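Our platform keeps sequence and structure together, in a single record for each protein. Nothing more is needed to write down the fold, since each code stands for a local backbone conformation. An entry from our holdings is shown next, in its original layout:
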Amino acid sequence: MHPEGWQGSLIGIFHNFNRWDAHHYLRIATYGYSWTENGRNLMVVFFPLYPYIIRVVSIFVRDVLVAAYIVSFASFIAGLCYIYHLVKLDFCKRTAWWAVALISIFPTAFFYGAPHTESLFILTTAATLYYIRSHKWLLAGIAGALASATRMVGIILLVAAAVEFIMHYKLFTLMKIGTWKRFFELIFTKGALILIMLTGTAIYLLLNWHYTGDPFQFMYYQSTHWHNNFQSFGQTMRTQFGLLPLDKFADWRYSSMLYTHLPNILGFGFSIWMLLYACLRRHRVGYIVYSLGYIFVSFSPSWLLSGGRYAAALVPSFIFLADYVNRKPLKRGAVIIVIFVALLLLMLRMYVQGGHIM
């Protein structure tokens, strides 16, 4: 039996994915940040790039929901192209194809086509990492600015860029041997371009200031309206395990607690596994540092709801996983594909039956 509100028609299926944060992004695309609830501009907690692109596309298709799907699908396809070329810079073509395939069947991959920011963030992140790895600093700065205008964690790409910049130009060596002219030349020319990434976050803070009078108002609303504060991700995950109703596991179809917390735990576990593997195999330091920062920020909210989605947008994890699988493709590839597809079908079923997978 489908839950109340479930629509089984083809058009209805698309409307079923207009849930959770999707409502808010479509509201911003339609009314902008001026929409208020009880006099509060609550929408300022959402970053602007995704809804504003939807708004532009909706001018041509005349429907914000259709526009949202177009933006999400197009962003995901473009993101896959960037991921493929990014992986090819350090690995073989087969590894690159594994990365593309594995991210496409991740257990929460259905969010890539939904009216959420996952696909756009994957595109902007993959593009930023590609230009960082290619040492095209102006393009890296621009792509990073787009990423930081899509999600708060986008600003962590600045750290990945700084690490790659320092290692590529051997800045510590230049300091050690006293080649200060070359050192400052690199810092104030190519290095300064990386700071363009800050503009995405700056625009977001300006939006907060314009609509509320406080550039950090989003933090207040996150705390008071959504009851979300930051804490150590260790404490967050202990809370998640504590709330998981293992005694009702057989009744998963009717347990909203299981819907909510199981994807969080699986997403966190996958992200940590890939981070540890990357450290063991000595993957690029910039990717590792970015992943660590991403995990720390994404899995630290006191009220974690979207851990499965957050893990789905951590691009370096799929680079690490592709490398892991490609070392023993027949054995590891088959196991990972079976696990991912099984979990994807389970998560999708839970989602369309009304589960609180956010």
